[in-house]
Design goal:
Length: 255
């Protein structure tokens, strides 16, 4: 027969052990190794917004507005973007017979340069990004006697392609691909002009030359700056974006 005293001792030990086990943490799922716990999914909207915000801040801190203000427009317009006669030699030559006032030295000044809200699009395969960089500025055309002759409102988009590139060591980097002005995005409108002068003829000729030379001029100044900004982006932000692009995961919310 099993001794009664031994049974009492056994039950006491069992109760003590049960109490100790109750205070222990629940064991981890054996299917998940300790160093491979599932990561929380990143918010796509935050990631896309983080990229456009960082690019905007980098462009502004990199001197974008100053670059736009100092575009050598007068020098280019004097040669008409490479055409014979140019604006000053050609257009003004046609008008000075009736408007001697235009014989004065012409000046073209860029004012109120702006970086508008950036746009972001992801390709259907999920491996590339296209950033739209909308720019705005006002051109003031002045003569020595009249002063401000007319003001033009100018809008232009630069489109930058961002893609993944691997170096010789197999490390991935976010780099600038094609960078160009968006076809048809240049918009020029008259803000102010002297009503007593045949301004429309001047506006039409000036707009024609600007359409030929301004997009490439701005592109040549802005794209190198975009390339520099990419190199200074936050490492964690770039890592998360690379992970999405490499795996073709959508993170740019379509609107």
């Amino acid at each position: 027969m099993f001794p009664t005293g031994a049974l009492v001792v056994f039950c006491g030990l069992l109760a003590h052990a049960t109490a100790q086990l109750a205070g222990l943490p629940v064991p981890l799922d054996p299917i998940l190794p300790l160093d491979q716990s599932p990561a929380l999914p990143s918010n796509p909207q935050d990631l896309a917004g983080g990229l456009t915000g960082a690019l905007s801040k980098g462009l502004l801190s990199g001197g974008l507005l100053g670059i736009l203000e100092n575009l050598p427009l007068l020098d280019i317009l004097k040669t008409g973007g490479g055409t014979s006669g140019g604006l000053v030699g050609g257009l003004l030559g046609k008008l000075t017979s009736s408007l001697p006032i235009l014989n004065n030295i012409l000046s073209i000044k860029v004012t109120n340069p702006q970086l508008l809200e950036l746009g972001l699009v992801q390709t259907p395969d999920g491996h590339r990004l296209y950033v739209t960089i909308p720019l705005g500025l006002i051109l003031k055309v002045n003569t020595g006697l009249v002063g401000s002759l007319l003001e033009l409102d100018v809008k232009l988009n630069i489109t930058a392609e961002l893609l993944v590139e691997s170096d010789s060591e197999g490390k991935s980097h976010l780099v600038l691909g094609d960078c160009t002005h968006s076809p048809g995005s240049l918009r020029i409108s008259l803000l102010n002009g002297i009503a007593s002068l045949p301004i429309q003829d001047l506006v039409d000729n000036l707009t024609g030359i600007l359409n030929k030379v301004l997009p490439e001029l701005v592109q040549g100044k802005v794209c190198p700056l975009v390339n520099d900004v990419l190199k200074l982006l936050d490492v964690t932000l770039v890592h998360d974006i690379l992970n999405k692009l490499i795996n073709g995961l959508e993170f740019v919310v379509k609107v």
